[in-house]
Amino acid sequence: MDERINSSLDRFSLGNLFPEHVRQEMRLETYKGGERLFSQGDEAHALYLLIEGKIKISMLSPEGKRLILAFKTPFDLVGDIEYIRECPLINTVEAVTDLTAIRIPYTVLRQEMADNPAWLQFLLETITRKFELKTHVMNFNLLYPVDVRIASYLLSMTPNKPVIDSTPLVDMADLIGTSYRHLNRVLEQFEQAGWISKKRGKITIHNRAALLEQAGHNIYE
């Protein structure tokens, strides 16, 4: 087994949660920023422990619009709800930055951990936090104006570098929960204020402090 798995589990205080024979089945996986890890509706086969990097989680609504549910940084789980429900993936997961995750097959967890009280308690606490966050984000999308949501999205998408891909803006509008026209209008306001610039399919952040003030707090984190 990769020694980085042991050190990562210890770093997040999970060293005593998984027996040695379960650790032997774990694998490290890496993804590049912008890469899609999973798509909504795909079959789920493993649990992923996010230990480095940042992911964006979104879902496709019945009307065909993609909505942001959360941005996640370590430590977090991907595939825990699907593990419990034994269902296909309910969300789309994409890498915002380069990231590393520990992969644990569901078959191993069901065979070796299904009756482990500490593991079950850990899952319960993790899933409870996720539903609290989902409620918070949904309330935010209902209660806060579009300019605040756009500022937060731009901040969340640029944790390590000031540039993001601006195409297609229609997808960005769907993710934030607004119209293409409204999104473009707010981006133009930000550009006129000198906070950002749009050029050749890219958005560059020039005044992060102003966007932070506009967002109030980074709600998608």
Explained architecture:
The protein is an alpha+beta fold and 221 residues long. The protein has 2 domains: 3-141, Jelly Rolls (Sandwich); 145-215, Winged helix-like DNA-binding domain superfamily/Winged helix DNA-binding domain (Arc Repressor Mutant, subunit A, Orthogonal Bundle). It has 9 helices and 11 strands. The protein has helices at 3-11, 20-23, 80-85, 106-112, 117-143, 146-156, 169-176, 180-192, 208-215, and strands at residues 27-31, 36-38, 46-52, 55-60, 66-72, 76-78, 92-95, 99-105, 163-165, 196-199, 202-205. The strands form 3 sheets. It has a 4-stranded antiparallel sheet with strand order 1-8-3-6. The radius of gyration is 19 Å and the shape is elongated. The mean pLDDT is 88.
